[in-house]
Design a protein that fits this description.
Elements lengths: L4 E7 L2 H12 L5 E3 L2 E4 L6 E7 L12 E5 L3 H13 L5 E8 L2 E9 L5 E10 L2 H7 L23 H6 L7
Length: about 170
């Protein structure tokens, strides 16, 4: 058995979540019940369970975001192209300084508002150099899509609710 991180989320629309995760993960659920789904994607050590229910008493997400770290930028680009081909909206950030490291990544948002980050850590940033740079380098153009740099590198609850994902074939 391969070790996997288990994540269980609630949704108020299981059908929309099923459609989204089939496209994002590129696989059908291994369990598909009336009130429960379970996904085991090939490209990530994730065991994702989804069931009907409310997120939190005040309606806000309890999860900031979920991430999948891949071994190379090439794998990130391959997964990004695969996800885009399904029609899901994607926001990419290439060579972005985030969380004290330089990363290539893309984001998708599930129907319940949970942001997923697929990334490769290119290198750790030196804390002294990072202060000098002021985290100014936020992204650049590459041949895949136009990057829309975010105000911060990881979604905050306010940003999760208001940012629009962009896609460009």
């Amino acid at each position: 058995m391969t070790a996997r991180i288990h994540i269980h989320i609630h949704t108020n629309d299981l059908a929309k979540s099923k459609d989204f995760y089939e496209k994002f993960f590129g696989v059908k659920p291994v369990k598909d019940l009336v009130d429960y789904l379970k996904f085991l994607p090939d490209f990530a050590p994730v065991n994702l369970a989804i069931s009907n229910g409310v997120h939190h008493a005040d309606g806000e997400q309890q999860v900031s975001h979920v991430g999948v770290q891949l071994d190379s930028s090439e794998e990130v680009f391959e997964q990004m192209q695969r996800v885009k081909a399904t029609g899901l909206k994607v926001r990419d950030e290439i060579s972005v300084n985030c969380c004290h490291a330089n990363q290539d990544k893309f984001w998708v948002r599930d129907p319940s508002g949970i942001d997923w980050e697929v990334y490769h850590l290119n290198y750790d940033l030196d804390p002294i150099e990072e202060k000098k740079m002021g985290m100014a380098k936020r992204g650049k153009m590459i041949g895949l899509t136009t990057i829309a740099p975010a105000a911060g590198c990881c979604p905050t609850p306010a940003r999760s609710r208001s940012d629009k994902m962009e896609t460009k074939a």
